[in-house]
Amino acid sequence: MRFTALLMASSLLTIAVCAVVVASVVYETRDEKAAARSPNTLAANPGEQAVALWGYTYDTIDDLQYSVIFIAPLVEDAPLPPGVPRWPGPGEAVLSPALVEAGRGEGITTRWGETVGFIEEAGLESPGEWIAYVRPDASHLEDPRLFEIVGYGNPGGGGIGEHTLVSPLWALQTTLLCLLVLPALVLVVIAARLGATARDRRSALIEALGGSWSARAYLNLGEAVLPVSVGAVIGLLPWVVAMGLDYRLPLTGFIMPSMSLRSAWWQLCAGGLLAALVVLVAVVLLHRSGRGRRGKRGEQSVSPRARAEKQPRLKVLLCPMFLLLATRGPDLIAANSPFWFIIIYTVGVVGTLVTLPAVVSLVISTVGRVLANFGGRKGVSSALVAGRWMAAQPGVTARLVAGIVIGIGLMGQVQAHSSRISEPMIAAEETLERVGAGVIMVKAPEESSRISNFVEALPEGILTLGLTWPDSEGDKSLLAPCSVLIELDLACDGRAEVNRAHPDGRLSELANWESPSGRIVVRDDSPTGHSDHPVEQLVLISASGTDLPVDTVKATAYREVSLSPGVGTLGYSWYGGAKQRAQTVDWVVLLGVVGLISLGAGVAMNNAGEFLRFSRAAAPLTVLTGQRRIHAEIAAWVICLPLLLATAVGLLVNYWLVAPMTVPLIGARISATGIAAMAIVGVVLALGSWVAGTVQALRQAARWTPEAD
Question: In this structure, are residues 591 and 442 in contact, taking their beta carbons and an 8 Å threshold?
Answer without folding.
Answer: no
